[in-house]
Amino acid sequence: MIPSFSVDHRAIVPGIFISRVDEVGNGMVTTYDIRLRRPNIEPAIDVGAMHSLEHIIATFLRNDPDWKDEVIYWGPMGCLTGFYLLLKGNRSPQEIYDLILRAFKAVGDAQSVPGATAKNCGFYLMHNLDMAKWYAAEFVDYLTSNSENPVIFEYPKTERLITDDGQQFYDS
Ligand SMILES: [Zn+2]
Questions:
Q1: Fewer C-beta neighbours within 10 Å, C or N terminus of the chain?
Q2: CA of 132 to the centre of ligand 1 (A)
Q3: pLDDT at residue number 172
Q4: What distance in Å separates the CA atoms of residue 84 and residue 14, rounded to the nearest whole number?
């Protein structure tokens, strides 16, 4: 593993950030935090909207002809302030900016939530497409108006927390 830094959550703003890079076989896998909310300052994302954003954007990413073979994982953060995206390779956040913008624009175009059925989902009643569209539109506006702002691409770093029993702390 390539050692990862820790992030000072008090200083996080929304954006597209690299949280870690791992060597896997002969290649690399990069984990991005796609952060929509300022932790502990703004209210976290509505859980039904979070779930719908998970379904719609996972489906979008895994069907995109240019990116589907690069996608390893898309899923929600437990703190409900954003999403994890794992991609093959080691691209900068700026290199995936257009992909993320298109993914969230796709939420605005969605007529329904894919896979929101008892057969395809672990809690198919817990969806909220209208709220998902609201969060997505807000994030698209934010990314667009801050496209030249470096703070949306680089995390505020800090030392990694050591727990009381001496373990290094991780949240994913
Ligand atoms: Zn589901």
A1: N
A2: 14
A3: 85
A4: 13
What separation in Å is there between the alpha carbon of 60 and the centre of ligand 1? Answer: 15
What is the pLDDT at residue 53? Answer: 98
Rounded to the nearest angstrom, the distance between the alpha carbon of 157 and the centre of ligand 1 is 33
Determine phi and psi for 31, rounding to 5 degrees.
-100, 125
Q: Point out the residues of the chain with pLDDT beneath 70.
A: 1-5
Asked whether 104 and 96 are in contact (CB, 8 A), the reply is: no
- Give CA–CA dist 8/90, Å, rounded: 23
Q: Where are the beta strands (DSSP E) in the chain?
A: 6-7, 15-24, 27-35, 71-76, 82-88, 157-158
In the prediction, which pLDDT does 1 show? 47
Please tell me the pTM assigned to this model: 0.92
Q: Are strands 6-7 and 157-158 parallel, antiparallel or unpaired?
A: antiparallel
Rounded to whole angstroms, the maximal C-alpha distance in the chain is 49
> 120 alpha carbon to ligand 1 midpoint, in Å?
7
Distance CA 103, CA 84 (A): 14
CA 102 to ligand 1 center in whole angstroms: 21
Cα of 114 vs centre of ligand 1, distance in Å, is 9
